[in-house]
Amino acid sequence: MHTTLLFIHSILRWVIVLAGIWAVLRAWKGVSNKTPFTASDNKAGLFYMIFLDVQLLVGLVLYFATSVLTKAALSDMGAAMKTPELRFWSVEHLTMAIIAIVLAHVGRSKVKKAGTDAQKHKKGLVFYGLSFLVVVLLVVMVIGKGRGWLPSLS
């Protein structure tokens, strides 16, 4: 079960990257070209946020139910904080993911409440852009920790 969940979590990483690119590009296009806020702009932010939420759910199951690394870290957080690999997977990875998700949710809320199309695009660009930067940094860090570019079921 752990391998399957980790595979899904790894695939979702790339779905999130694609959705994040879509959301940021739609917002950037709206800001730079002063275009109306369309249903496609709305869907881009919505799908980005939804994929982040699904990733969080899968990640939480991995974190609390199936991961040997996080179980070891949670059993002795003092020792985990002194071990870079355990600290990354038990604290840093989760914290960065939550920051990215919060930024996307705040952005979505701000976009919905904005009064003009220009404000919607600008708020989307700021919040989805910041969230996406955290996602890209996290993906680079995960790849650097040996998880690889593509997931494996073995």
Describe the structure concisely:
The chain has 154 residues and is mostly helical. The protein contains six helices and no strands.
Secondary structure category: mainly alpha
Unreliable residue runs: none
Order of helices and strands: HHHHHH
Portion in strands: under 5%
Structural notes for this entry:
The chain is mainly alpha-helical. The protein has one domain. It has 6 helices and no strands. The mean pLDDT is 95.
Which terms summarize this structure?
154 residues
Secondary structure layout plus pairing:
Elements lengths: L1 H32 L5 H28 L1 H8 L1 H6 L1 H30 L3 H31 L7
